Fold this protein.
Amino acid sequence: MLSPTDAFKNKECIFCKIIAGTLPCEKVYENDHIFAFRDISPQAPVHVLIVPKQHVVDILDVSSENSVIFQNLFGAVQQIAAKLGIAGSGFRTVFNSGDHACQTMYHLHLHLLGGTQMSGSLVG
Ligand code: DGP
């Protein structure tokens, strides 16, 4: 039997629909490999989700065969942080993976958070 999480993975992917333009979003950046848009419930003045256009479930779904995804994601972080004016002040990047990290969207995404002084705590 599928767990609730596994069942969710088998549904149509919302982030793929956003990338395809069939669901609306506030886009902040796009290149051939990456799409980035503002989080629907921001946890900081700047809260952007950076996603590979290729559907990859999570960080465990990246292997030596497709590890260029990380290069593309981190390259986009540099571009977007500069574009949104937070490269100098600092920012936080987060991958949530699985239940203990409260991952809810099963299309790999990197949270880019900034625009305010954050606490030093990474959990809570
Ligand atoms: P995570 O817990 O790492 O799986 O975070 C998923 C994030 O995705 C969460 O912060 C809310 C955001 N999100 C979910 N659905 C949508 C949507 O339809 N549009 C946008 N812009 N963000 C979404």
User: Anything to note?
Assistant: Helices lie at 4-9, 14-20, 68-83. The chain has one domain: 4-114.
